[in-house]
Each structure stands twice: as structure tokens, then as C-alpha cells.
Design brief:
This protein has 16 helices and 17 strands. By secondary structure, the protein is α/β, with parallel strands linked by helices. Helix 7 links the parallel strand 8 and strand 9. The chain is globular.
Length: 486
């Protein structure tokens, strides 16, 4: 019996290249009725017996962790058991040792295991720096044997690089990756190739749109299904339904040539990227199981003519803007619920805004021990102008983040500046002036690229200066913003 091929995550985690995603458990339990764990585990067992023995879930996927725990328990005492990935997606805020350990322990308890095979961390806004605290505590728990491998979800290239530069031993990054959403094929894949991080690709079939079912069909106008609603937004951002039909037509020709389905072609295209460890396919536990068809993705190879046809279709489409994960953090919000501004606006500020004592204005404190000692504020707002102090990659614990890596430090600093502006009632779009101080002028390029990722469309006046910086800091940045102007 044909079984999906396998690959290694790190040195010890042996997984199927087709991972069963259990996000649909939450959809099946949406009415408030919880699935029977034993009966649902029977369906997972059928996948495992067919070689699809790697399962991906999250803390918010209904009872998926409990169901998988039932399956894992059946393999007690056996030399090999199914592999369980899960995600911890905490509410943004301080990530103390106790908060992190409670979150991880809940995953262990629900899965009924002594160690989570792969624990993936999600964070909504990088402007709140506590995500690094959480990852460092997870690293400590990994060293204690409670976590096998550490992964992240929906991290862009800059913040994946920052986490690695700060000493986090990341094994995976789970991101959207398909023939419609090709963002992961660029800088992110290059970073993964250099660092050894593997990608877990979801959305590979674009919510089912990448199939014969939609070839030549009119555009959907009303969508009730949350998954299709989400991926229709990607299709719209990629140039619209007509351009998508061009891609489907090319994929259909390739599929007929190889005697496979359009979904097989879409899956094969993603799997062929060196950075991709596995694709994540939906498992509906008894409904719409397509194991035999999915396996056909491993029975053929795309040739140069196939790639040429796909490249022509891609060229006619509009690239999805930004980097991986941006769809959750900035416009255009390509999610099932659409605009997430209200959600992001509800995230607590990382820093404290206080009234100034000597004049009518606001000052922002990051809580650094040096602010009261040295007598300064991270940012000051007077009327419509916000002045952000020279900012270094100092974390709340007063340690230097990513020592020796100027590009990673610049990413952290710019998040810190954005958070300071937000606390003072401003936005990064309000910045009209920046100054960059470099320890070594030879490091201008990674810092400038980090600056460009944030300010590429805003284009403030900028000055680049070589300076003698204190300690392990490679770069310092300051900014001025004018609020309420266009």
C-alpha cells in the first residue's frame, strides 16, 4: 500500500510530508456539541494506519487536542506512535514564566503526553515585545524535556530572523503557501535554507478552490463557509477571478497530462520547494476523506514545460502583498473575518503613557530601569508632534537583543518605536524623520533593508550616521512624527 513519504524536523522528529490538520474540529463543534473523543480518534486512527500519522492542531481547535490524546494513548508501550503538533496562541500581554508554563502544561494535559512533539507559538502583534519572553521560556522547557521541537506560526522573514538571532532554536514556521499565495517562496525560503528552519504549508489548496470543481465556473458572490471566505480574499488580492481561472486552466492542462487532479498539481508545486517539510491537509473525521487522491501528489513530477505554464499564469496575477503573516497584522486583512483592526486595536499597549509634569503633553515609558536613572522618556508628545528617543535593542529585562546582528536589532528597534508611537496616540505612518546610528558603517545594508520594510511606502526624511555606541548595540534609531497630517 502506498504511503506518504517522510522527512525529518531537526534531528529527531520523523514526520509525514502530508500532515493532517484538525482545524475543522472547531467548525464541527461550532454549534456547541463536542465530538465523542473515542469515536473521533477512530477516524484519526484510519489516517495513521494509512501513513498519515502526523497531526496538527491548536489550543483553539475545539477538542482536537483531546481527540489526538485519545489516539496517542492507544499506542502506549509501542516503539512508535503518531506525531502530535499543536499551537499555543496566548492573548497578547506580559509573558511571565508562570503564564508560559501554564499554557504549555495545558497542552501536555490535553494531549496526555509528557512532551509535546512540536509546540508552535503564535503572536498577534510584534509591537508587544513579550513574544521573545515566551519563546525563551519555551526554550527552557525544551531543555527540561517538556517540548520536543519549537515552531512558530505566521512569522514573517524579519521576525523569524530576529528570533533566531536572539538564540531561539526554531525548527519550523507554519505559513500560508500555495500557487495563489507565493510569498513564502521568496526571502522566507532563503532564510529557511540558510538556517535549517522548515516550513509547514497550509492553505495549499486555497480552501478547496484549487480543484476541478471551480474550473470554468462563475465567481462566487455569497460565501458562508469560513475557509472559502478567507481564500476568496486571497484570490481577489491575487488579481481576481479571471486571473485565477487562468491559473486553474494551466493547472488543469498539467493535471490531464500526468493523469492526476488539479489539487495534486497544486500540492506537488508546494512540496517541490526545498524549504517545505510538509503540507497540511484538512481532516474532517469521516467526511470528505481524500487520502487516496492526496497520495497521487507523490506519484509524478512537474517538468520544465509544466513550470513554464505555471510561471506564465503567475506573471498574469498580482503578487499577494507583504510577507507571510501580514494578513493577520496589517491591511489588506486576508482572513475569514476580514478587517482585524478592531482586534489589533484591543491589544494592550506594551508601554505606559503618562502626562508630562512641566507642560501640556504626554511622555511614554517602556519600563526600562534606566529611564528614571538617566532621566529620559522613550517618547514625548507635544501637541501634534511625537519625538522618539534614540532607541536600541534593549529588552524589558535590560538585556541586548540579538547581539552582533544589526539587521535583527533594527527589526526589534522599529517595533519598539511603533509601540512607543501607539502609546502616544500616533502611528508609524505619522513618522516624518528618522536617524540611524551605526556602530560600523559596513552594516548599513541589513539595517537599511529593515528600515525599508517598515518605511518603504511612508518615506520619511532619513539620516545615516556612523557613531560609537555603548555595549553590544550595533544600531540605534530615533524618529519624529507629526500626528493628524496627510
Amino acid at each position: 500500500m502506498q504511503r506518504p513519504p517522510r522527512t525529518m524536523i531537526g534531528k529527531t522528529l520523523d514526520i509525514s510530508r502530508m500532515v493532517c490538520g484538525l482545524w475543522q474540529v472547531a467548525d464541527m463543534e461550532r454549534a456547541g456539541t463536542t465530538l465523542d473523543p473515542a469515536g473521533a480518534a477512530d477516524h484519526l486512527a484510519a489516517y495513521a494506519e494509512a501513513g498519515f500519522d502526523t497531526f496538527d492542531m491548536a489550543d483553539h481547535y475545539g477538542s482536537a487536542e483531546i481527540i489526538t490524546g485519545q489516539l496517542v494513548k492507544r499506542y502506549s508501550g509501542q516503539p512508535r506512535r503518531p506525531v502530535a503538533f499543536t499551537k499555543w496562541c496566548p492573548e497578547p500581554g506580559p509573558m511571565t514564566r508562570d503564564i508560559v508554563r501554564r499554557g504549555v502544561q495545558e497542552r501536555l494535559d490535553r494531549l496526555g503526553v509528557a512532551r509535546v512533539d512540536l509546540l508552535q507559538f503564535h503572536w498577534w502583534s510584534f509591537e508587544h515585545p513579550a513574544w521573545l519572553d515566551a519563546l525563551h521560556e519555551m526554550k527552557a522547557m525544551q531543555e527540561e524535556g517538556l517540548i520536543g521541537a519549537i515552531g512558530v506560526t505566521n512569522f514573517d522573514t524579519a521576525h523569524l530572523s530576529l528570533a533566531l538571532a536572539d538564540g531561539i532554536p526554531l525548527a519550523t514556521n507554519q505559513v500560508s503557501f500555495s500557487m495563489v499565495d507565493r510569498r513564502a517562496a521568496g526571502e522566507l525560503s532563503e532564510l529557511c535554507k540558510a538556517s535549517g528552519v522548515r516550513l509547514l504549508a497550509y492553505g495549499t489548496l486555497c480552501g478547496g478552490f484549487l480543484s476541478e470543481r471551480w474550473l470554468g465556473k462563475p465567481e462566487l458572490q455569497h460565501i458562508a463557509d469560513w475557509s472559502k471566505s478567507k481564500y476568496k480574499r486571497f484570490i481577489d488580492a491575487g488579481g481576481g477571478w479571471d486571473k485565477f481561472q487562468t491559473l486553474l486552466a494551466a493547472s488543469g492542462r498539467i493535471a490531464r497530462k500526468h493523469g492526476v487532479s488539479i489539487s495534486n498539481v497544486a500540492t506537488r508545486w508546494v512540496l517541490d520547494h526545498d524549504s517545505v517539510a510538509a503540507v497540511i491537509i484538512g481532516a474532517r473525521l469521516g467526511e470528505s476523506e481524500h487520502r487516496d487522491d492526496n497520495l497521487k501528489a507523490f506519484g509524478f513530477a512537474l517538468d520544465s514545460d509544466d513550470h513554464a505554464q505555471l510561471a506564465e499564469a503567475f506573471a498574469a496575477m498580482t503578487p499577494i502583498p507583504g510577507d507571510c503573516g501580514d494578513e493577520y497584522r496589517k491591511p489588506p486583512f486576508l482572513t475569514a473575518s476580514g478587517d482585524l483592526s478592531h482586534h489589533l486595536g484591543a491589544i494592550p499597549s506594551a508601554y505606559e503613557a503618562l502626562p508630562m509634569q512641566h507642560r501640556n503633553g504626554t511622555r511614554v515609558s517602556t519600563g526600562s530601569v534606566w529611564e528614571p536613572i538617566a532621566g529620559y522618556s522613550r517618547a514625548v508628545r507635544v501637541k501634534d508632534t511625537i519625538y522618539v528617543s534614540g532607541t536600541t535593542a534593549t529588552h524589558s529585562s535590560s538585556r541586548c537583543v540579538a547581539p552582533g546582528d544589526p539587521g535583527a536589532q533594527a527589526v526589534y528597534i522599529l517595533d519598539k518605536i511603533a509601540a512607543s508611537l501607539a502609546a502616544a496616540g500616533g502611528r508609524i505612518e505619522d513618522v516624518v524623520r528618522t536617524r540611524i546610528y551605526l556602530r560600523d558603517a559596513a552594516n548599513w545594508e541589513p539595517v537599511s533593508r529593515a528600515h525599508g520594510r517598515v518605511f518603504g511606502r511612508i518615506l520619511p526624511a532619513n539620516t545615516l550616521i556612523e557613531a560609537k555606541l555603548v555595549g553590544a548595540y550595533e544600531v540605534e534609531i530615533e524618529a519624529d512624527a507629526v500626528v493628524g497630517t496627510s
